[in-house]
Amino acid sequence: MTESALAQRTGLAEARDLAHAAGMTARPVLGVERVPLTDAAGRVLATPVSARAHLPSFSSSAMDGWAVSGCGPWRLGDAVLAGAATPAPLTPGNACAIATGAVLPAGAHAVMRHERGWADDDGWLHAQEQVRIGADVRYAGEEASPNEELVPCGTRITPSIVALAAAAGHDEVIVTCRPGAAALVLGDEVVAAGVPAPGRVRDVFTPALPAALARLGAECVRRRRVGDDLAVTMAALEEELATSPLVLTTGGSSHGPADHSRAALEALGGEAVFDGVELRPGHPVMLHRMPQGQLVLSLPGNPLAGFVCLAVLGPPLVDGMLGRRMTGLRREILAVAVANPRPGRRVLPCVRGDDGLMPTAWQGSAMLRGLAAADVLAVIPPGGASAGAAVEAVEPV
Ligand SMILES: Nc1nc2c(c(=O)[nH]1)N[C@H]1C(S)=C(S)[C@@H](COP(=O)(O)OP(=O)(O)OC[C@H]3O[C@@H](n4cnc5c(N)ncnc54)[C@H](O)[C@@H]3O)O[C@H]1N2
Ligand code: MOO
């Protein structure tokens, strides 16, 4: 590799920042939509989730037992079951049996759980130990006040957030529309089904990209294969760019005689955000901004290289388009030493063991077995990393 070739490549951290910034300024700006809570997981909040009322909305018992007022022993009245709206108030020296979740009667100062007291045959309740004021009571508003923000906008909705939104009284949430992405799979040799004949290759991207894009928060709206021809590549790009703010291409990103991505993108007025990243596998990856503000991410055709690029550059790009902050790479411990004598960062599919990350057996750029077995992709810095070292890591797609 020559010094000049290296100088043109963008560092991985810078490429992620550039992808995020490009996503932030991509056009058209995405709209927002209301979705029912059951469809909300995985989407990104366009407005915060706030409490619609006190959370919880009324004071209740946290245990099955007795609501008590003042000091014991207490005279027992009628029981309060969950669902009763306004139980009779308690005055000091009185108590009533109460179920978990039932409204706390006015005047009750605590709940005594049933294993800490007993009722005698004459209708008196006795405590085994002193009952602390407020014991086993869930107070109205102890989790949130009305209108208090619970989850900020830009957050990706998890099932736990769905549950919190329901608890806070919401039936639906307002989310950012998913960026629609079109996939163009380039290459004459690529076939769509079965075992390929010699010289042909089974297309691995078309079946996998919709799910991979969905995990990033985008929606694969169209997919098509495109032959190795500059005019055909330009026409396909133009057609997809007319309706999609994001186009992914696979293959054709290098400098071979049948590689037309770069020339097609430049001929259509595309401006390179980056052209080549210090990354192995995956160094030929490119990102272009088109004249109307759409983005084209060109993934290298070698299967592991393409998916590695999508895993390291796709999240900041799509997060930017969704108006979200970029999630940083996390750090994980390597179980074994990993060499990296060549320039740039090396990305290795790894499994997580008791002692840390262990690279899988299949690391070739055209291989997929290692990626399919991987829990995580380890990012090895130039010079390598020793056993026990903390390295950057990213989720595989
Ligand atoms: N002289 C050089 N040649 C290459 C270099 C280099 O630095 N100097 N880099 C190599 C690297 S690294 C990669 S990665 C590839 C990237 O090439 P392209 O993005 O142009 O991809 P293609 O040449 O079209 O294909 C490469 C490889 O991948 C297979 N492929 C393509 N599409 C698919 C698909 N949909 N499903 C499965 N496999 C696919 C294709 O058949 C080739 O085997 O360039 C190197 N060359
Ligand atoms: O990106 Mo290539 O190995 O680095 O396949």
TrEMBL record:
PANTHER family this protein is in? Answer: GEPHYRIN, MOLYBDOPTERIN BIOSYNTHESIS PROTEIN
Task: Give its E.C. classification number.
Answer: 2.10.1.1
Q: Per its record, how is this protein called by name?
A: Molybdopterin molybdenumtransferase
Cofactor(s) required for function per UniProt: Mg(2+)
Domain MoaB/Mog per the UniProt entry, residue ranges: 182-320
* Classification of source organism: Bacteria, Bacillati, Actinomycetota, Actinomycetes, Micrococcales
Keywords, ordered alphabetically: Magnesium, Metal-binding, Molybdenum, Molybdenum cofactor biosynthesis, Transferase
Q: Which reaction does it catalyse?
A: adenylyl-molybdopterin + molybdate = Mo-molybdopterin + AMP + H(+)
